[in-house]
Amino acid sequence: MKVYTLTKEVAEQNIDELLELHNLIPFQNWTEKDLLKEEDSERIFKDKWKLSSVCTNDNKFIGACFAFINNQTQILENDNFLYLHRIAVLPEYRFRGIGSKMIKYTCQEFYKIYPENKSSGIIVSTPIKSTNSYNFENAEPFYLKLGFEKIGEKQYDLKLDSILKTTVSQLIQ
Length: 173
Prior knowledge:
- The protein is globular.
- The two termini are 22 Å apart.
- The protein has a 7-stranded mixed β-sheet with strand order 1-2-3-4-5-7-6.
- The protein has helices at residues 8-13, 15-22, 32-36, 48-51, 98-113, 140-146, 168-171, and strands spanning 2-5, 53-57, 60-70, 81-89, 121-130, 149-155, 159-167.
- 29% of the residues lie in helices and 32% in strands.
- By secondary structure, the chain is an alpha+beta fold.
- β4, α5 (98-113) and β5 form a beta-alpha-beta unit.
């Protein structure tokens, strides 16, 4: 297995495989445009193509971590924090440390780009409850095991998300 940076070129060349992987995430149904965009109405996805990572096994994408610098939200004291936007691992490869490896790789890349920000925060949002009968695997325990702490919840139409945080330095020890 190999973890490496997901560049825009790699994403464009492997769009169908990455979309299939991404859309395993509960409540997500991205299109090519969604996967490749670099901003939305709420924020700019700063350094998305430097901080996102993928994991492959025999040239097959088995995991993806879409990340960027979020400087549009007042969640943490420091407005420039690493946001783990989406993380997906194929079901048959889960519970093998792939998600952890991608997150740690992303943190190391962040530290290479921003060495002065080793203590910067990392935020992730993950569904913990569905408001309809949609059944999904709750990933909150995964993040808690990595050292994230829950700082809040956010209600959406179809789901309730847990908001968790940690620091870059905690994950690159």
